[in-house]
Amino acid sequence: AMTPAQFRRLALALPEAVQGEHMGTPDFRVRGRIFATLGSGANARCVVKLAPGEQEMFMRVEPDAFEPVTGGWGRKGWTRVDLSRVEEPLARDALVTAWRNVAPKKLAATLKYVGAGIE
Questions:
Q1: Which residues pair with 45 in a beta bridge?
Q2: How much is the pLDDT for 117?
Q3: Inter-residue contact 52 to 43 (CB < 8 Å)
Q4: Which residues on adjacent β-strands are paired with residue 48?
Q5: CA within 20 to 30 Å of 103's CA: 34, 49, 62, 94, which one?
Q6: How many Cβ atoms from other residues are within 10 Å of residue 4's Cβ?
Q7: What is the pTM of this model?
Q8: What is the 3-state secondary structure (H, E, C) of 48-90?
Q9: What are the tens digits of pLDDT across the range 89-104?
Q10: How far are the Cα atoms of 24, 32, 35, 44 from residue 97, in angstroms, in the given order?
């Protein structure tokens, strides 16, 4: 399990990641583009921007922790992460994947990261 503070720390550790806010919800952006949002409270649900195939892969690896957000956004790959059911290495993989999905290619290439269980 993870806390919202741990999730925030992982997100902000990514190159050029900054915290913003969208309709009252904290979010994380790289060069203005949102790659994750931060849930709050006891059973915090965060959201990461994955591609549909990536979403499917994370759901296969940890079905209790990952689920599509409801509606069209979920079909586009936006994925809920249940912090009470995810361990840090997998959450970091999801954040890195989401960050890479929105970061400019040159910036994405600067991140040397090998996942913790997703090949």
A1: 82
A2: 46
A3: no
A4: 36, 79
A5: 62
A6: 16
A7: 0.91
A8: EECCHHHHHHHHHHCCCCEEECCCHHHHCCEEEEEHHHCCHHH
A9: 999 999 999 999 999 9
A10: 24, 17, 9, 20
Identity of the amino acid at 8? R
Distance between CA atoms of 1 and 85, rounded to whole angstroms? 5
Two tokens, residue 12:
């902000």
- The C-alpha atoms of residue 30 and residue 55 are separated, in whole angstroms, by 20
Strands 45-49 and 17-22: unpaired
Rounded CA separation 64/85 (Å): 6
CA 75 to each of CA 70, 71, 80, 93: distance values in angstroms, whole numbers, following the listed order: 8, 7, 12, 20
Q: Are 79 and 90 in contact (CB under 8 A)?
A: no
